[in-house]
Each structure stands twice: as C-alpha cells, then as structure tokens.
Amino acid sequence: QSPCGPIIHGLEDVLIKSTSISDIDGEKGILWYRGYRIEELARLSTYEEVSYLILYGRLPTKRELEDYINRMKKYRELHPATVEVIRNLAKAHPMFALEAAVAAEGAYDEDNQKLIEALSVGRYKAEEKELAYRIAEKLVAKMPTIVAYHYRFSRGLEVVRPRDDLGHAANFLYMMFGREPDPLASRGIDLYLILHADHEVPASTFAAHVVASTLSDLYSSVAAAIAALKGPLHGGANEMAVRNYLEIGTPAKAKEIVEAATKPGGPKLMGVGHRVYKAYDPRAKIFKEFSRDYVAKFGDPQNLFAIASAIEQEVLSHPYFQQRKLYPNVDFWSGIAFYYMGIPYEYFTPIFAMSRVVGWVAHVLEYWENNRIFRPRACYIGPHDLQYIPLEQR
Ligand code: SDX
C-alpha cells in the first residue's frame, strides 16, 4: 500500500496484454503452446517444428517445415564483426557475449536497418511484417552459432562451422565439440529446446516487450531479454542448481541443505518455486524422465541425479515448501544431463536463451500488432520544494 494506492510488487498477476502464444495453468501445472499441451509436443515434435508453431501460430505442412528449415540453415552464419565481438569476449561469461553478439548482429543486418527506418515513421505493414518475421527466423537460427563459437574461443579453439546435414540440436552439439553427437544427447538438447520455447511473460519476455514497445528493434529486444534471463532468480537457476549439487556432493546432505533454505534469509533452493506454478512444473517432470534415461545409459559418476532426487524428496515432504506450494521447476532437473554431456554449467543459461528466443520474438511480433509504449508510474514518497543551500553554507 502507498499514499497513491496499491503497489503491485514485482507486477504479480498484473496482465500486460492478451496472447495466444502460450498458456499456463499454475494450479494444475499445465503448459500449452498455441493450444497444444507441452507433453504432446515433447513426445512427438522437434524444436524446428515447435519454433515454427510458436512463430506462425500453427503446425507447418511438410513443405512449409522443409522451407523453414532450409531458411534457418542459411541464416546460421554470423557477420564477421559479430565473430570478432565473441572472440573479444571469450574470457567473459557467455551470457555477456550472447547479449553483445545479438546487438552486433542487429547493428549489421540490413533487414534490421530497413525495419528500424520503417518503424521510426510508424510504418508497419505487410512488407515490414515480412521483414520482422525474417529477422525473427534469423535470431532463432543464429543463437546456437553464437553460443558454440563462444565456447570454442573460450577454450582457445577455432570455431566449427555449422553443418547443413544436421538438425538444429545436433548441429549445436557438433559446433560445440567438433564431432557428431550421440543421438541421445541430440534428443536431450532438442527436448530441452522444446520445453523452454515459451512461457507467457516471465521477466525476460517482459523485458523484450518493454524495449519493443518504444519501437527500438527486434535484436535489441532479444538483447534485453538475454540480460534479464542472466539473473539467478530466472534463467541462471539451472547453472546454480548444478553447482549446488556438485558442492553438496552426496545425497546424505540433502536434508540439511533443504532445512537451511527454510530459514528466514536462508539461501533459496535453486530450481524450486515459481511465480505461476503452484504445482510441479510439467517441464521439470518431462526433463527429469529424460535425465533418468540419460544417466541410466551414461552413468551418474558425480551422483547428481541421486542428489537432486534426495533434495526433491525432502522438498516434497517438508511443510515449509508445502505451505508455500513450492515445487521443483524446470531448472531443478535441466542441468544434470547437460553436465554429463560435457557442457560447462556457464553455458546452461545460454542454451535456455537459444530456446526462448523464439518466444521472445513471437511475443514482440504479437505485441506490435497493437503496440503501446510501456510507461508505468511510481508513487513519490519524498519531500517537495526544498530550498537550495549554497555549498559554502552546507
Ligand atoms: C524460471 O516466470 C517464469 O515463467 C520463469 C521460467 C520461464 O520459463 O521463463 O519458468 C523460468 O525462471 C524458473 C524459476 C527459476 N528460479 C529459481 O529456481 C530460483 C529459486 N526460486 C525463487 O527465487 C522463487 O521461487 C522465484 C523467483 C522463482 C519466484 O519468486 P516469487 O514468486 O517472487 O516468490 P517469493 O520470493 O515471493 O517467495 C514466496 C515465499 C517466500 O517465503 P516467505 O517470505 O513467504 O516466508 O516462498 C519462499 C520465499 O522465501 N521461497 C523459497 C524459494 N522460492 C520461494 N524459499 C526457499 N527456496 C526457494 N527456492
């Protein structure tokens, strides 16, 4: 409450627009993309097809999907200046490089210049929309290249160019490690990308909307979203969760770790709790099953799956978490298989961004259909009309 009226802290439950891209039933733990349940898409689809669905609002025909995949393969390459930006940030956390590289790509993309000029005079008709969708496809296609190139430069390795005969997920692993990936690993990346493609308007998607609402541009909206996703309370939780499991080291310590998180001001358990889900995150359920299969095939040498399972058990039976309806979320399980694939944990959130980029651009294009600049208010509680005292008298 404030003198001006109710403050909605963290914009909890504030509606900023209507959308038909994704819907979440937080009470029941259900997620839909364009009306399809996530379980069905996870089982039957691919990220190529799901990203088309999210962008264009319907499942593609065979021909539409082939054309889309061919366009994406053409867009995978980066502008030479962008490669230099990534090389210069090789020692920085990959989320900083991702943010800078997306901005650089946007700075050099002629399509983007054309769109910026059109938007600046308020023109957003069929021709501009076509430009915007092309830019959206470019962003989806380029993210894996940026992430993989950074990984190579950070290890002092030369880049591995994209291969046209590999799908989106397999090609990413190929560009990372320079060898054809194990099919189960490619399936894991593809599944992860499907599960994270959109999620209504979390902080990162909201950030994309704010930048787009000023008619800045699509690349800048995605750069802003990446900046928001980097935070440990949002996308960075999967990196923190695996670091915690590695530090805990044994399932026997799960009880004390969970207990510590219930103390006021105690360290929040990464990968637990959610603003919308007051039930088990359906994405976490699906990726937990994949992780179980992955460690069944390749082993669990650092006990990560066992430690996460022990922590989950404690959380699901502890009154503190039950009272607050806190359950594992997608970040709780998403890092274990990645870690065993040899993906360093600082690359987990960049992979989250590689997926969510299609949600960010789809939401911006949807918002631009009925754009209005975001300009909330704040309630001023300071003094007014103070008299200025000259410095020598202070
Ligand atoms: C993602 O929004 C999205 O959709 C995001 C996402 C997506 O797909 O884009 O789903 C991806 O970001 C998943 C969430 C990843 N983050 C984490 O796992 C970080 C740990 N989680 C918490 O920081 C927290 O649960 C949030 C940030 C996820 C949600 O924060 P809220 O809704 O603002 O909840 P809150 O801080 O008001 O917590 C309510 C209560 C508090 O206790 P009390 O003050 O009532 O006593 O629950 C407690 C919190 O202290 N609590 C936790 C906790 N999460 C909340 N206590 C211990 N451990 C936790 N993880």
From TrEMBL:
Cysteine-cysteine disulfides: 4-379
Pathway(s) the chain acts in: Carbohydrate metabolism; tricarboxylic acid cycle
GO cellular component, one term: cytoplasm
Residue positions of the active site: 274, 331
Binding site for Mg(2+): 289, 293
Alphabetical keyword list: Metal-binding, Transferase, Tricarboxylic acid cycle
Top EC class, one word: transferase
CDD domains xref list: citrate_synt_like_1 (cd06118)
GO biological process, one term: carbohydrate metabolic process
Catalytic activity as recorded in UniProt: oxaloacetate + acetyl-CoA + H2O = citrate + CoA + H(+)
Family: Belongs to the citrate synthase family.
Protein name: Citrate synthase
